[in-house]
Amino acid sequence: MPHKRVTLNPAGGLPEIELRFGNALFAKYEIALFDRNGTNSKPVTPEPQLNSDNIPDTFQVGTVLADLDQRILFWQAAISVFDDQPNQTYLMRAIISQNGNQLAVFDKRGSIVNTVVDQDTVRFDVG
After folding, report:
1. Cα–Cα distance between 28 and 26 in angstroms, integer?
2. Residue 40 contacts by C-beta under 8 Å, 6 or more apart in sequence?
3. 125, 68 in Cβ contact below 8 A?
4. Cβ within 8 Å of residue 73, ≥6 positions away
5. What are the structural domains of the chain?
6. N or C: which end of the chain has fewer CB within 10 A?
7. pLDDT of residue 13
8. Residue 25: what pLDDT?
9. What is the CA radius of gyration of the chain?
10. Would the CA dihedral through 43, 48, 54, 57 be positive or negative?
């Protein structure tokens, strides 16, 4: 299955990713940037992050815009419910922006009992 793609403006700044977790859930997550072949990962988040702290869940991706062309952005989260209730669902939303302009939104949804691990990826096109 081909990667989802986000086209970055070559005259713009570095992109940002923001993760949001819906339905009042607790999440521990990490974000990494891989090369075009899906190897040689570099962390975007310095260590696993929490959505329940007072630290914003928005991170700049990369250091040089041109170097992001065809690179793969990966995010993964362990998502837990606060209180087990029947028929609970989760939402993991990634928002990719550049210069304050939203470029793409990627949602992962599903049923949850206690904890679930989910992940997603996107490939950048610069130009």
Report:
1. 7
2. 34
3. no
4. 17, 31, 32, 33, 34, 44, 61, 96, 121, 122, 123, 124
5. 4-126 (2.60.60)
6. N
7. 98
8. 82
9. 15
10. positive
The distance of Cα 28 from the centroid of its chain, to the nearest Å, equals 12
User: Which structure tokens are listed for 3?
Assistant: 């990667």
68 neighbors 15 (Cβ within 8 angstroms) = yes
Per-10-residue mean pLDDT of the chain, 127 residues long, equals 88 97 88 96 93 92 97 97 85 97 96 93 96
Burial 81-91 (b: 16+ CB within 10 A, else e): beeeeeebebb
Give the pLDDT confidence score for residue 82 in this predicted structure: 81
**Rounded distance, CA 46 to CA 52, Å?**
17
Q: Identify residue 32 by its one-letter amino acid code.
A: A
User: Which tokens hold the place of 57?
Assistant: 């869940």
